Every structure is written in C-alpha cells, then in structure tokens.
Amino acid sequence: NEIADADADSVHADRHGDKEIVGYWEDGLAIYADGTREEKREEIIDEHEAAAAEQRKLMEVESDTDNGEFKWDTEGMWEEKFKEHSDSKPYGPMSVGADISFPSSSHIFGLPEHASSAQLKDTTGANAHYREPYRLYNLDVFEYELDETMALYGEVPLIVSQSETSGTVGVFWFNPSETFVDVESKGTAGTNTHWISESGVFDLFLLPGPNPRSLYEQYARLTGRLSLPPMFSLGYHQCRWNYRDEDDVYQVHEKFEELDYPYDVLWLDIEHTDGKRYFTWDQHLFPDPMTMQKKLSDQGRKMVTIVDPHIKRDANYYIHKEATAKGLYIKDKTGEKDYDGWCWPGSSSYLDFTSAHVRDWWAEQFAYNRYIGSTSSLYTWNDMNEPSVFNGPEVSMQKDLRNLNGVEHREWHNLYGILFQKATAEGLVKRNEGENIRPFVLSRSFFAGSQRYGAIWTGDNESSWGHLEVAAPMLLSLNIGALSFVGADVGGFFGNPDAELMTRWMQAGAYQPFFRGHAHHDAKRREPWMFGDEWMVKMRRAAMARYALLPYWYTLFQEASVSGMPVMRTMWMEYPEIGELYHLDDQYLIGSNLLVKPVTGPGVKESTISFPAEDLWFDVDTMVGVERPMGHHDGSFSRTVSSDIDKIPVYQRGGSVIPRKLRLRRSTEMMTNDPYTLYIALDESQMASGSLYMDDEGTFNHVNGEYAMSNFTVDMNESIKCEVVGSAVWIDQRPSDSRLVERLVIMGLEKKPSTIMIGQVKLEFDYSEKNKILVIRKPQVSALRDWSIMIQ
Predict the structure, then answer these.
(1) How confident is the model over 205-234, as a mean pLDDT?
(2) Which of 58, 129, 358, 787 is deepest in the core (most CB within 10 A)?
C-alpha cells in the first residue's frame, strides 16, 4: 500500500505540477487556486500497439522456460491503478462469466444504456463494428460520444433476441457489479455473447417468450411492473440550469400562459438551494417558495426541485449533522471513516442507500415539516446518482469503499441509483396523509426494475443533429429493458440549437414518453418563444399534438403497468414475423397503433417510412390512407412522404381506435373534464377496436379498483359500441354528462351511411367520398356508460 500511495503521489505531481487544487468539475478535471482549470489531455495511442497490448494481457500466455508451464499475465489482479487512483482489491481477483448463444438469431437487442443503435452490433470477430465490449457500469459521463459501447448513466443487463424461426427469447444477467458483454454474429448459426462481471454470483434468468408480449410478462414477474404515473407528468416539462429566482419563474410561467403554450411542470436545478444544500432554498433568490408553488398550482402547474445524493460536509447543515450522528454514510476502504468525495457542494459524503434504515431515514426528509418550503405540488429530480464523484476514478466511487454492512462498493455499484430513486419515491408518498398521492421522481441512473419508481432520461445530451438522431435508438433500447417512462432532453443539454433543430426536437419529444426541455447554464435561453413567433407556433403545434393524445398515452401506461409491455416499441415488438423490420430504430410505434418517424436532419423535406403490409395506415394529419401495393399483404413496403418543417410523419394503424382531447388547454389539470374525440381507423373489413382508461389521474385509488376502461368495437356494417368495465361505484359517482364523447372521426370508410342513430335519435354526420372520412358530431354519450351507435 505504501508503494501504491507513492505511485499515486507521483502521478498527481505529474498531472497537476505545483498547483493547489481547490475543487473538481463534473468532467473529473481539477480546479486550481489561481482560478484556472486542468486541461483535458488527449491520450494518443497507436492502434496496433493498443491491440497488441490487449491481446497480450487478456488472451495470450507466456511460457515459463524453467518448467515449461504456462502462466497468465497477472498485472492488476491483486491491485489496480487508474491514473492517481488505486484499487486495493483486498479479496484478490474475482469474476463470474458465461458464454450464451442465440442459435439461428442474427438480431439481438438490449443492454441499455449506450449511445448506439438499438440492435447490438459485433464487438469481436471478423465483422466487429466496435473494438470494445458493451460496458455496464453506471457513470457520470461528461459530453458522451455517439456510436460507442462506453458505459453511461444506467444499465439493464438484459438481452432480447428476435428471430423469424425461434421467436422472442431473452436472458437477464442479474449482477450489479461492473459487467462487459461481447457480441459476435455467426451468420446462420446465430449470435454468441460472452458475459463477464467483476464480482458477484452467477444468477441467470432465461426468458422463453416465445413472443414479445409473453417475454415482457415474464420479465415483469422478475423485476416488477411500471408504476402508473400521475397524468400531469405526461405533459410538457420546462427546465433549465437554472431559473434564476422567483421573478424568473413567474416570468417564464406567465409567458407560457400568454402564448397558450401547454406545459405542466417548471423545474429548478441546483442553484435554487442554499449553497448546494439539498432540502433548502436560497433565501435571497427564493424567499417565499411556498407562495411561488401555490401560484403555479392554482393555475394547474407543478414544480420540481433537484435533490442529489451527495451531502455537503458542513457541521451546520442539518442533513449532514444528523446523517453523521446516525452513522448513515458510506465508509472508506477501512470501513471506519465516512467517505469524503467531491461534488457540486465541494467536500461531500454519500448516504448508504443499500441499507433499508438509511432509505427510510431519507424518505422522512421529504416530510413537509422537514423539507421546509415544500408543498404537495412539489416533486423531485434525482441527478448525479451513478454515483458521481468528481475526484473519484472515472468520476465515481472507489470500488473498495464499504457500505454499512462492510460490503465493497464494487459489489453493488449499479444498484446505487435505483435505490436512491426508490427511497425518494417512498418519501414523496409518505409525506402525504393517507399516503395516497402518486409520486413523480426523475432519475438519471437506473438498473433493472427502475420502472417501479419513476422516470428516466438519457442524461447530458448535446444540441446537435447527431444527438437528436440517436435519441430514438437510445429510448427504444431503454424500452427493450422495460423502462417505458423515458425521454431525451428536448433541444439538447449542452450547446445552442438553432430554430430548426429546436423545432424538430420538440416534434420528436412530443412522441417520446417523457417530454422535457432542458439546457445547460452556459446555453442561451431557449424557451419556445425565444426563436420568434413563427417558430414558436410550430413548436406549440407539436406540444398541442402531445396534449391531444394524452388519453391514449395514459391508457398505454396503464397497459404497461399491467402487462409489462413497453410503451415505446420497436417495430418487431408488434410485427415479430417481419424480419425486414427488425433493424429499424429510426421509426417506432407508440403502443400498437401509432407509427412515428422523427425528422433528425437539417433541411429535410421528405422521409422514407417502412410500413407493415398486413395493416392499413392513415396519416394522422390528413387522415388519408397510405397507398399499399396491389395484392401486397405480407412483409413490408416503403413510401416516401412529405416531411417539411411543419410535419412529423405519424400514422395510425387501420383497425384501431385512438381517443383524443382537442380543446386547447394550458395544462393537463385543465383538461380533466374535456370531452373526447374518437379517431377510428378502419381495417380492410371496415372494423376497428380500442380502449380508453380513466381514473382520478393522481391517487392510488385505481389499485383498489376505482377506475373505468371503455372498450370500443367498431363494425361499420352494423354499429359502434362502447362497453365499460371497472368499479361501478366509482363510475356511478361521476356525473352522467362527464367524460363525454363529442365527436367520432372514421377513416377509411368505403361507403357513405344512409342513417346513423343512437336509440331513436338520428345523428348528424358528414362524409368525404374523396378522402373516405366520416365525421359523426354530438352523439351525446359518455365514455363511462355503455352505448351503441347503429349504422345503416
């Protein structure tokens, strides 16, 4: 250890010279007393040299000439160095691994989170796309690179294989230590994978499928089902590092109001606190936070504040003082001292969220009499929970640190983020009397099962077309890992998007499950109106489309909470028999019924879309059907469609019913009692079906059966019917004129009806023979009651 310490001191001297270090930045580089910052050094490595070194260290053996035996290179096995850091490895070398093959499958998916394609590419062998295996090790990665296997903020050790011959199967490698996965395709023989984890046990679950729905039901039984989020959290979120003060908050809020631009949540980053002390407020900038929250709440809005896991080491800070007295912090490698790392507040300690009593204590901190200035309309954002340590190896914790049970950090590193989010969500539930209000918690870090605790976002993305393009594959990969409530920050975190990029990102964001705009403090202000009225109108139109579809989104989230089926789906999840669609990750499905292809390049006027040929498809804007090749009902076909700056290509599947709310409101709360319009896209038999889920949109009462599900069946040769299941008591408590259906829009109708009636009453309707669209107005029926509309 003395030698290791001397080596570390030598590296430190070479790296920093004689400069005094006073802090660290998020990229792990030092901040010096003279006000300068350490410069990033680019490591120049000869590719052939690096490959030879890897081959020598990992694969080759050298001959012991004395006895002719072979021995492995043991460098780093008993102690490992990373720059100035040293891992003592007190238990010596450890690992657990397995080779897992997917016979006859050439398409495997999963292993989030990586900024790469949804389909896993070869990392070894003759056709290797990458030089390194997929790494699963949660890290705070500053300005992450695209098309890489490098580790990012979270991980799910799940691979799903999709094959036309063997169907859908999966493997779940339940190990939270650092893991690497190599992929090698073998042509018609299938795909081989090699898994190796630094520590832990061999705990492997095989998911037999044989189709996507069966597989996700199996996986949900293992890791838990998505918790139904409150309705407001599916609206638009406006965030920035940082809204300066209460006046800034009011001005932003009032501008949204003035422009009739819908939004639901306004966020505050770390600068709202008193010196990065979480659960506090800067009294100069936010002197009256409760009044601020009430003003927004009175107009149907919520607020979110950031609460990170690093705790400022300040004896006068009540959180730190109590955590120290109770012994709640992670320890150093001796197991005796509280670990001291560097993060936003400076010198910080980290709570041990692997311990149940620490999680319980953390949950108590969200009580209204503990978190002074918080109200029931304030929710929480968990960032930096990989965990991020600015002066640690790879901007994280040393692996030989100890939790309160004496277990090394290497054993549970990838669990830290999920356990932090779990404790926070429990705190938001427990703070309310009766514990009956659903929480909302956004987390950057995650593990298998994070779907139970809240939303996830893809971290610190960049304002570039490349990052917009990779957003869909990243989000699809997360959904493959059963994390449905996910999003990429609209506009990109770093940098300054121009008006076109911001508009295209707002359009794409409207069709991702979690919909938030966010920006770095060095970025220019980019609220929608900052780009001028013309562009604001385009962005508002995208947000309005999102809000109109909220009944559909909410129904999909309820489905996911029951079935485990992801909300945002790859094409193969719905069309597993069409192999030519497997590789697609630049278009996707929202549920079963909406096909979306975001525009991810500048100056685009047209987009080419692959449509499953077994179904009809209708443009959601024009409601006109896509022309299908004559007699072509198998596989897929492509169409090039218009997608200028005012258009994101979105199509409704024939045979579906999608509910919308069309009245422009400024928040989800204001939409609660608005009527529905049913958009009915007919299949070739002139039939369709669909569902609409309804509850109180905010409590846990639905768990006890207080909900209604309207099931619509359409046969345009006979009738349109609604049959309602759910709690009769809850349904009867609703007024008979609530949840009304004010309009039905039917696409693909081949023949104009002569009469449309409900009971003895004739209904008004219009029919376009050219576009084959029928509109039925004012049926005066409730989605909470059974009814039949007769077609003649």
Answers:
(1) 98
(2) 358
